């Protein structure tokens, strides 16, 4: 790698860091926070290792060495993959700008992000009720909304009173909530509400009346532009407050029922929502729409094993076919 750095210096060639910086400067859609994150990646994880390498000389040896260096720094596999993604995107820009003919990032072995402790945890209805009744009543409405809507925390806490509406469906009236925004951070690390990155994240989700009843105290007598979940001053609710209350609820739940050993994260309420939908008969497509997934591929990868009814139907169909062949 030292030779490549010397080459870049003596030949006045464009370096990896310079090209990545140029790549970031050419981006149009990312928010100021995303741009800030990319620049921090370049400064912290790329510049000290392969940033000085001439972009024309970068190859799989440099990148493999970089991966090992990141592992030695104890970076999480997901972080390594994210930074590698930035390098790869930068190399695609380098190709378009004529700096090099190919992308050396393709085919580089990366650490797996699958860990036992990261596996999704799904709650049964009884487990949910156990946790819910042990949760501080102040936070029960938000937890209920999360598990019944499948919304992400940043989406749920950006929902406003005017996002709720009643619609006619199947001969009756159903409550729906429009999820079309989320909390984000700008270049100064300040929070603001903005539209989601993808069109599929904008969606209307039906919710049962019990959720609306739980939210009524926060929704009555205020304008439609008011946050449903808000602080005493009307501002953003930080996730850490619900998480602290959730941890206390888990401790109380385990004291009440020693057989309860799960340690669900707040994000597992989203997973639980999806699992209830699938086990209740919703299709993969319907669950994907509720979650805001761009396709059913992600939904199927995470939740397909919960579709017990599909296994039963599959067995019945193929069993019928087998009988026909025997005849």
CATH-derived topology of the largest domain? hpI Integrase, Chain A
Query: What share of residues is helical?
Result: 40-55%
Q: Which regions contain 5 or more consecutive residues with pLDDT less than 50?
A: 6-10, 309-319
Number of domains: 2
The biggest beta sheet reads: 3 strands, antiparallel
Tell me the total number of β-strands.
Answer: 5
- Report how far apart the termini are: 70 Å
User: Please, how many helices?
Assistant: 14
Order of helices and strands: HHHHHHHHEEEEEHHHHHH
Secondary structure category: mainly alpha
What is the fourth-level CATH superfamily of the largest domain? Intergrase catalytic core
- Spatial order of strands in the largest sheet: 1-2-5
Q: Round the mean pLDDT to the nearest integer and report it.
A: 87
CATH class term of the largest domain: Mainly Alpha
Outline, from the CA principal axes? elongated
Radius of gyration: 25 Å
Structural account:
The chain has 327 residues and is mainly alpha-helical. It folds into 2 domains: 2-96, DNA polymerase, domain 1 (Orthogonal Bundle); 125-312, hpI Integrase, Chain A (Orthogonal Bundle), CATH 1.10.443. It is built from 14 helices and 5 strands. The protein has helices at 2-10, 16-26, 32-46, 60-72, 77-96, 125-133, 140-149, 153-156, 209-219, 239-256, 268-279, 284-291, 296-303, 308-326; strands spanning 164-169, 172-179, 182-185, 191-194, 203-207. Strands 1-2-5 form a 3-stranded antiparallel β-sheet. It has a two-stranded antiparallel ribbon with strand order 3-4. Helix 2 (16-26) crosses helix 5. The longest helix has 20 residues, at 77-96. It is elongated and about 70 Å long. Mean pLDDT is 87; it is low at 6-10 and 309-319.
